[in-house]
């Protein structure tokens, strides 16, 4: 059973327990929490057997979005991926900021930055990937966590990013015992890139919050970088 399905079942149990305790005080019909519980359990079952965790992720993401703090973390996380990919020369072709948007585009998780991966695909087909390409993608994968840590002093997202990095390292022949060391290394690299381009990052966050198109986001990063250079002279 997926972790998402387990979370949905836990929510169902909590709702039923809460309604049992508080229902009589607020004159809540027992039918309502029962229907809600059945709905959550149904979603959990469908999610586990048919949707491979995505259905439950969408529901949990929708519930979490009632929290402004959660929405802000998603935006700052994805802006970190976007900025570092752009700085390292990997073209960004799109981005999503919710599990529903990601699901419609066939992407995992609560959101994501879509990259133009043709160059690394060519190298993988040849069975030889350059050190430069390896470093760039590893930095990009850790950039979301780096951004959250810089802004919020902690990271709540990034499980999928770490999994991608670990799978990539395993495919390159690295042993599992070095995964955490590599994560820390690339996390520090990504942090430095974001800090060195902090004004551009902040401008990008504002643009993504307004759902600005990718091309305009790139223009905003470039303009802000040029402004900083002029101010530094």
TrEMBL record:
Gene Ontology biological process terms from the UniProt entry: proteolysis
The protein's name in its UniProt record: ATP-dependent Zn protease
GO molecular function per UniProt: peptidase activity
Protein's UniProt keywords contain Transferase: no
Keywords: Hydrolase, Protease
Record organism: Anabaena lutea FACHB-196
């Amino acid at each position: 059973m997926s972790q998402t399905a387990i979370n949905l079942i836990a929510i169902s149990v909590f709702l039923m327990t809460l309604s049992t305790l508080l229902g009589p005080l607020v004159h809540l019909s027992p039918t309502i929490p029962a229907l809600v519980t059945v709905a959550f359990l149904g979603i959990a079952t469908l999610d586990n057997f048919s949707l491979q965790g995505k259905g439950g992720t969408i529901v949990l993401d929708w519930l979490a979005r009632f929290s402004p703090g959660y929405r802000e973390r998603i935006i700052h996380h994805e802006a970190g991926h976007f900025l570092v990919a752009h700085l390292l020369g990997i073209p960004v072709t799109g981005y999503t900021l919710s599990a529903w948007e990601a699901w419609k585009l066939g992407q995992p998780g609560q959101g994501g930055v879509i990259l133009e991966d043709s160059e690394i695909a060519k190298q993988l087909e040849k069975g030889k990937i350059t050190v430069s390409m390896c470093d760039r993608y590893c930095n990009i994968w850790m950039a979301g966590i780096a951004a959250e840590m810089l802004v919020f002093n902690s990271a709540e997202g990034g499980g999928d990013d770490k999994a991608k990095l670990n799978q990539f390292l395993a495919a390159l022949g690295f042993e599992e015992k070095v995964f955490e060391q590599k994560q820390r290394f690339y996390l520090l690299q990504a942090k430095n890139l974001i800090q060195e381009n902090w004004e551009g990052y902040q401008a990008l966050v504002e643009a993504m919050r307004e759902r600005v198109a990718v091309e305009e986001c790139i223009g905003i990063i470039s303009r802000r970088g040029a402004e900083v250079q002029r101010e530094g002279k």
